[in-house]
Write a structure and sequence with these properties.
This protein has 79 residues and is mostly beta strands. The chain contains one helix and four strands.
């Protein structure tokens, strides 16, 4: 995986989250590249605890679609 850079960070006023977005693209390349890796992290403002993270890496994706059952199982697991 390539090095990821912080492309955005923000704090929501209405809740206690601090959000960080990372990418292997430069800010001016966002939206232009098909081969990319993006990640997002959310932290509790008060404790600094990592609450969630997500990563999207095109290089890790399969050309083969998942089975219908796996797609349904994954949909149920999302929140």
């Amino acid at each position: 995986m390539k090095k990821l850079n912080i492309i955005a960070n923000r704090s929501r006023e209405n809740d206690q989250l601090f959000l960080v977005e990372l990418s292997d693209r430069l800010e001016e390349e966002i939206g232009n590249s098909k081969e990319y890796t993006d990640a997002s992290l959310s932290f509790d403002k008060k404790t600094g605890e990592l609450l969630s993270f997500g990563i999207q890496a095109k290089a890790w994706a399969s050309e083969k679609l998942p089975s219908r059952q796996l797609a349904q199982d994954m949909k149920i697991m999302r929140f």
